[in-house]
Amino acid sequence: MEKVSINTEYIKLEQLLKLASVTQTGGEAKLMIKEGLVKVNGEVCTQRGKKLRINDKIEVNGKIYVVV
């Protein structure tokens, strides 16, 4: 489980994927989310603007990221 640190109240899913280096661009992140390849707290999420807060868990490519 990899920790992704934020300094704000929330981060959008698309931004988190870039911050965690899962994708290099917003376009890549958008495609992954649209294709249903990303889970948020155990459920597939197709909403790229989904607001993630502390302790939310994101699963992509078999890896888990937690917002801290």
From TrEMBL:
It comes from the Bacteria. The lineage of its organism: Bacteria, Bacillati, Bacillota, Tissierellia, Tissierellales. GO terms for molecular function: RNA binding. Pfam families: S4_2. This is S4 domain-containing protein YaaA. The gene is yaaA. CDD domains: S4. It comes from Soehngenia longivitae. Gene3D superfamilies: RNA-binding S4 domain (3.10.290.10). Keywords: RNA-binding. The keyword RNA-binding applies. InterPro entries: RNA-bd_S4-rel_YaaA, S4_RNA-bd_sf. SUPFAM superfamilies: Alpha-L RNA-binding motif. The keyword Lipoprotein does not apply.
